[in-house]
TrEMBL record:
Species this chain originates from: Candidatus Uhrbacteria bacterium RIFOXYB2_FULL_57_15
Record region (Disordered): 41-62
Superkingdom assignment: Bacteria
The protein's name: VWFA domain-containing protein
Amino acid sequence: MSGGFGWHRNDTVKESIRLPDDPFRRAVRAYEPPAASKPAASVRARVIDPTPPPTRKLPSAAAVGMPVPGAGGSMRSTASNVMIVVMDVTGSMHAWPGEIFKRLPLLYHEACAYLDSDDLEILFIAHADAAGDEYPLQVARFGRGPELDPMLGAFRIGGGGTERDGCESHELVLYKLVRDVDTSSAVNVHAFFITDEAGRDALNETQVRAVFGRPVEGETRATKDLARQLLRRMNLWAVLCETGSYSPGPILAWWESLIGNDRIVPLNDHRRVVDVLLATLAKHTGQIDRFTTNMRSRQAGSRYAGQNVKTVMDSVAAVGTRGPLAPKAIAGLGTRPLLPAKKND
């Protein structure tokens, strides 16, 4: 399935016809409140709605009506599973956040499935270049299901970047995650950087003060040291987007030196970004065959189904199964699961 995505239902059918119960359709149903029961006399045969559900489109920040997410302050997740999605939102990457928004229901539901838990929170972070962009770092809050929509929509997207050195401020994001983001209650934490550029090799004191309103805390300044600290408590991945704006060689080399080649996911099609996030989770957890089956089901009827699946499989070819350097055996109590519990009949 590559067309309509949303939190609503579009599966009205005649009693004699059943639409395929694919992962996306289950994702849509999972976030709906139970339908009110009707008296038997009022129930009529349902007919297929030939109109596909509307494509989810990332709203403008003004339409969302939320303030620009800031960069300061600490935050804590109380879930047993956490995903952190860090998006480069400079001009060359402007289309990628919209693709994530379009398929956000699928991302959330399927991530729960691969992590074998409904207790999942996602944190979105958007960044540009602190050397010159108006909004160098925007940090949402941890959220679940439909409440993620306005968080993603509140980001100001399309920073120009400075193009002085072909770098963005990934090191500031790493610093933020190390200093201010507490995921200690989670067993599984997966952080994804989605970008087409490298970062800088060390923190800039002036930029840290400008973005966070405080001086650099602690002795760590080198980007590699920040990444090493994060890798002790979470899985860290880099989805390197081939936008054609920069030479990929130096960018790949920078990220490989930072996190290792088995944590690099190259991608040349922005429409497949959610697929590669899920495929990375699936491969890391030994469920890549399940993912492939699900993706083929979603792509059924598309003339490009085979190529789309191949694109994703090529992207995650090098993904390994090693976890954080200091994995935890148990997590905290977690909080409310979003998806309804199954009832025994």
